[in-house]
């Protein structure tokens, strides 16, 4: 039974009363402007274990052999999403979609059955209204390999018989039935971007029913989508709904589409939106998801509230209180809104970020011991998991079965991210004596570790991730530490003794450490994975052999100095090699937040706390004082650059090419601006955050070239995290310019700006510029023709569209103290000059607030006052590590940080 969040108001009359009397039994919808069907009836997502991977991929032998199976499939393909398509194709040939099906009755609520190689699946059709990209989306993440099957139905209506070309979009095999007859089967498999398949049909007068069955194999992140575009003249889309009336439904749909949220990130425990005044709406808060950092379970709650927007259209709904003692953060709350009492079946569902329960500190108070106490007190009331277990153990607590239930389950199943859990368990085994483990738990942990697989070259078929930079090192550390702990015992997965595993892991860990000490990280400044690297480094510093432990401590010094250098008032306010949408919406959810809180007293406490807890409770490493001095100074007047470079290798990265990133940033007491300069310009992106301005945890400003309308972390790149095609960006003092080139036939064909106006104190739109003020901090952004505010949906007033091409961006920061009011600042700026050169590429000229004349083009020119400006080349350059060394020694053997009377030297070779 649902529990009201707010008392239901008294409503005079029922706005749907007439529609019930005039019921037509259906609703009718338009195609999107580009011809996509957005209204469907969809069945549930059916999933079941993939238990026959070894039929197409050899579980033994070299993971690199191309002829390991008749299909030439080796184990390495399972660990990298784009390369797994041949494996999926081979399994699809074994288990193709069954074409002989009884079609569902195309009506909302209709029960139906479907057949696959696994047997019969039962479900019920429910309404789905897609995002703006027109894709029905079942995307998700699978810890272990899973077969997936889903069905979607739509109906197209024409008044007279006509030929139409239909374009079917899918990321996996699909079968298409038209009026019950199988018209086509397409078996292409892609990673993130859908394939497009053409189907020519004669639509008879009246209704044509199109049913699509979609097959997928989930190996970790799985983009599972289908779409249907009608080319040529539009058609009507019909959805049969008992008791519905298509005429009043049209008015109802327009009201639902006009709903505008005050902000997609919730920090005060309530969500606010605007709608038609006086309309009674039912709000359902449901599907609250919980991250896997401490238990991994999803909280599936549904709460209801009936609300009526006031005369101004404002409505407020309180979010469900988090259960007492459970401080797991609901990262995403799905909010479904529908008109109360309506029988038309229409609703709209919006994903919102909820950061209401996150302690956040922007100015340090107290002492390092206070910060440590804050963190451990917080961790002890997290859901059971590695973080809470480590915190309890530090206080003399017992390791309970519930603490390791999730971790041991992942290890035994060889589920993705089990390598993280293995390192946490090894820390517990080292730190907690036998007497402080619940009966049987310690032995269960030992058995799980002895049966585990520690690298891709060891026997077993699984889809764990072995090749992203952070995972590589976690695996090597886990293997080395497990081998050292159980040196004389036999590991059942390989038949090796522990000493051999320790040596194998040590060799690979040493290679990784050497490369990162010498050049830095390919996942540069990641506000997710820098924390994971810290976790592994702490464990190795505490439990590894002497040489590896020393190297781990040195790299941990560099990692924390780099994090402090790029931090600003408790925010990891810089460009990121990998990031996620939730962290770009609110810095309270950055996984580096707990580390910052522990190390220098600003940041946030959120459930991604295990790395910080491991660091807080180790005796093998102490945070250098210079790290705290850097973090304190970097929150004021500060300029820095960091250069990461190295080479990717097939044996470790599945790629063979150099990598290089140049991150530069500029901080004032009121704002921070940063970018990664000239990073892989014009190539496909993944999860890179190329440039951004930060004035507060929720006032992060940036632009992207979106790949889709999805914001899911399982879609890479998506609407806001990453770019479909990476731009060119450069920084000069407090300004950034970014230039885009949009390919012909790009699926979105645009860029867009994230400018969360509801979190600013003041916003002004004037000419080419949009500006915002938070406190004394100012930010302004320009593009050719200026920006159009998106006025509807859950990103209303946060997403801004360029009025013209959107190929050029200029962003600059200031303060009220220096520039006067926001209006004064905007009017003092000259408009950029935008252009396209003879090769069709963008260029820009602009005079910055300091009077410097900046020119840039897409091909590589970047000048200030006519002089060419080269990107930084030294590994670190900041007031704590100034560029006063030999200019030819940018790869010095020693890197020295010195500030506030504290200093640290790190030998990197």
Write a structural description.
The strands form ten sheets. Strands 1, 2, 3, 6, 8, 10, 11, 13 and 15 form a nine-stranded antiparallel β-sheet that branches. It is built from 19 helices and 47 strands. Helix content is 23%, strand content 30%. Strand 40 and strand 41 (842-847) form a beta hairpin.
Number of strands: 47
**Overall radius of gyration:** 28 Å
Percent in strands = 25-35%
Q: What does the oligomeric state look like here? A: single chain
The average pLDDT is 92
- Structural class of the helices, strands and pairings? alpha+beta
Question: Major sheet: size, sense and barrel closure?
Answer: 9 strands, antiparallel
Uncertain segments:
1-20, 289-299, 322-329, 885-891
The shape, in one word, is globular
Span of the ends, CA to CA: 63 Å
How many separate helices? Answer: 19
Helix content: 10-25%
Concise structural overview:
The protein has 909 residues and is an alpha+beta fold.
Describe the structure using short key phrases:
single chain, 909 residues, alpha+beta, nine-stranded antiparallel beta sheet, 19 helices, 47 strands, 23% helix
List the helices and strands and how they pair.
Elements: H1 17-21, E1 26-29, E2 39-42, E3 46-49, H2 85-94, E4 111-116, E5 119-124, E6 126-129, E7 135-137, E8 140-158, E9 162-170, E10 174-178, E11 181-186, E12 195-203, E13 206-222, E14 225-231, E15 236-240, H3 246-257, E16 260-261, E17 265-266, E18 270-274, E19 281-289, E20 302-307, E21 314-318, E22 332-339, E23 348-354, E24 360-361, H4 368-380, H5 386-394, H6 401-413, H7 418-431, H8 441-450, H9 469-485, H10 498-519, H11 529-543, H12 546-566, H13 581-585, H14 593-600, E25 603-604, H15 610-616, H16 625-633, E26 638-648, H17 650-653, E27 657-667, E28 672-676, E29 691-694, E30 700-704, E31 728-732, E32 735-739, E33 752-754, E34 762-766, E35 769-774, E36 777-782, E37 787-789, E38 799-802, E39 808-815, H18 816-819, H19 822-828, E40 833-836, E41 842-847, E42 853-857, E43 862-864, E44 867-868, E45 876-877, E46 894-899, E47 902-907
Parallel strand pairs: 17-23
Antiparallel strand pairs: 1-15, 2-6, 2-8, 3-8, 4-5, 7-14, 8-13, 8-15, 9-12, 9-14, 10-11, 10-13, 16-18, 18-21, 19-20, 19-22, 22-23, 24-25, 26-27, 26-45, 27-28, 28-29, 29-30, 30-33, 31-32, 32-39, 33-38, 34-35, 35-36, 36-39, 37-38, 40-41, 41-42, 42-43, 43-44, 46-47
Helix pairs in contact: 4-5, 4-14, 4-15, 5-7, 5-15, 6-7, 6-8, 7-9, 7-11, 9-10, 9-11, 10-12, 11-12, 11-15, 12-16, 14-15
């Amino acid at each position: 039974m649902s529990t009201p969040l707010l008392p239901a108001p008294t409503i005079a009359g029922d706005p749907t009363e007439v529609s019930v009397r005039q019921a037509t039994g259906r609703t009718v919808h338009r195609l999107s402007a580009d011809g996509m069907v957005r209204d469907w009836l969809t069945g549930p997502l059916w999933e079941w274990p993939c238990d026959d991977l070894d039929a197409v991929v050899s579980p033994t032998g070299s993971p690199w052999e191309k002829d390991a199976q008749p299909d030439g499939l080796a184990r390495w393909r399972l660990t990298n999403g784009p390369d797994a398509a041949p494996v999926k194709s081979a399994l699809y040939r074994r288990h193709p979609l069954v074409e002989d099906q009884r079609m569902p009755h195309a009506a909302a609520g209709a029960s139906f059955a479907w057949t696959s190689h696994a047997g019969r699946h039962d479900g019920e059709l429910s309404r789905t209204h897609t995002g703006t990209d027109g894709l029905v989306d079942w995307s998700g993440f699978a810890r272990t390999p899973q077969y997936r099957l889903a069905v979607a139905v739509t109906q197209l209506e024409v008044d007279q018989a006509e030929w139409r070309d239909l374009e079917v979009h899918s990321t996996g095999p699909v079968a298409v039935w038209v009026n019950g007859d199988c018209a086509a089967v397409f078996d292409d498999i892609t990673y993130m971007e859908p394939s497009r398949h053409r189907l020519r049909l004669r639509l008879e007068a009246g209704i044509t029913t199109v049913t699509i069955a979609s097959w997928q194999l989930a190996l970790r992140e799985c983009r599972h989508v289908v779409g249907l575009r009608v080319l040529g003249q539009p058609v009507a889309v019909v959805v049969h709904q008992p008791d519905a009336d298509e005429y009043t439904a049209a008015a109802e749909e327009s009201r639902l589409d006009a709903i505008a949220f005050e902000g997609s990130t919730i920090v005060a425990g309530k969500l606010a939106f605007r709608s038609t005044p006086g309309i009674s709406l039912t709000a359902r808060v449901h599907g609250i998801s919980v991250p896997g950092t401490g238990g991994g379970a999803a909280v599936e709650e549904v709460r209801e509230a009936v609300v009526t927007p006031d005369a101004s259209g404002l409505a407020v709904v309180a979010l469900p209180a988090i259960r007492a003692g459970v401080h797991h953060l609901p990262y995403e709350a799905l909010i479904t809104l529908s008109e109360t009492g309506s029988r038309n079946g229409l609703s709209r569902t919006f994903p919102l970020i909820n950061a209401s329960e996150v302690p956040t500190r922007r100015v340090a108070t107290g002492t390092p011991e206070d910060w440590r106490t804050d963190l451990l007190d917080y961790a002890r009331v997290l859901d059971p998991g590695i973080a809470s277990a480590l915190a309890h153990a530090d206080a003399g607590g017992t390791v309970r079965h519930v603490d390791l239930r999730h971790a041991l389950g992942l290890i035994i199943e060889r589920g993705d991210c089990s390598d993280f859990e293995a390192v946490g368990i090894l820390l517990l085994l080292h730190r907690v004596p036998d007497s402080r483990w619940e009966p049987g738990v310690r032995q269960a942990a030992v058995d799980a570790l002895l049966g585990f697989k520690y690298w891709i070259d060891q026997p077993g078929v699984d889809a764990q991730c072995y090749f992203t930079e952070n995972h590589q090192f976690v695996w090597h550390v886990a293997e080395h530490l497990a081998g050292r702990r159980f040196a004389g015992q036999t590991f059942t997965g390989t038949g090796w003794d522990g000493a051999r595993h320790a040596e194998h892991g040590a060799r690979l860990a040493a290679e990784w450490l050497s490369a990162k000490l010498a050049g830095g990280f390919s996942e540069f400044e990641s506000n997710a994975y820098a924390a994971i690297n810290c976790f592994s480094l702490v464990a190795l510093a505490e439990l590894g052999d002497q040489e590896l432990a020393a190297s781990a401590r040195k790299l941990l010094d560099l990692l924390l100095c780099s994090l402090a250098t790029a931090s600003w008032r408790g925010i990891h306010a810089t460009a990121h090699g990998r990031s996620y949408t939730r962290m770009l919406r609110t810095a309270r959810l950055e996984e580096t937040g707990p580390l910052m809180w522990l190390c220098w007293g600003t940041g946030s406490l959120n459930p991604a706390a295990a790395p910080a807890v491991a660091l807080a409770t180790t005796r093998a490493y102490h945070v250098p004082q210079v790290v705290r001095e850097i973090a304190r100074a970097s929150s004021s007047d500060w300029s820095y650059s960091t250069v990461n470079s190295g080479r990717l290798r097939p044996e470790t990265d599945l790629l063979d090419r150099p990598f290089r990133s140049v991150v530069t940033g500029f901080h004032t007491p009121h704002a921070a601006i940063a970018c990664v300069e000239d990073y892989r310009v014009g190539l496909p992106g993944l999860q890179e955050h190329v440039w951004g301005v930060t004035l507060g945890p929720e006032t992060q400003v940036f632009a992207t070239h979106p790949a889709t309308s999805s914001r899911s972390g399982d879609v890479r790149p998506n609407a806001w995290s990453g770019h479909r095609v990476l731009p060119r960006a450069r920084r000069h003092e407090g300004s950034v310019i970014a230039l885009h080139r949009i390919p012909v036939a790009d699926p979105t064909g645009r860029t867009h700006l994230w400018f969360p106006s509801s979190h600013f104190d003041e916003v002004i739109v004037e000419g080419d510029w949009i500006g915002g003020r938070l406190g004394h901090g100012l930010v302004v952004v320009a593009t050719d023709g200026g920006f159009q505010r998106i006025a509807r949906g859950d990103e209303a007033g946060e997403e801004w569209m360029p009025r013209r091409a959107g190929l050029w961006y200029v962003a600059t920061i200031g303060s009220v103290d220096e520039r006067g009011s926001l209006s004064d600042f905007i009017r003092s700026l000259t408009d950029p000059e935008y252009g396209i050169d003879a090769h069709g590429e963008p260029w820009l000229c602009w005079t910055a607030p300091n009077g410097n004349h900046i020119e840039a083009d897409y091909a590589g020119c970047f000048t200030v006052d006519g002089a060419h400006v080269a990107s930084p080349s030294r590994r670190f350059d900041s007031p704590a590590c100034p560029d006063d060394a030999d200019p030819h020694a940018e790869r010095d053997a020693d890197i020295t940080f010195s500030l506030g009377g504290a200093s640290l030297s790190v030998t990197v070779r």
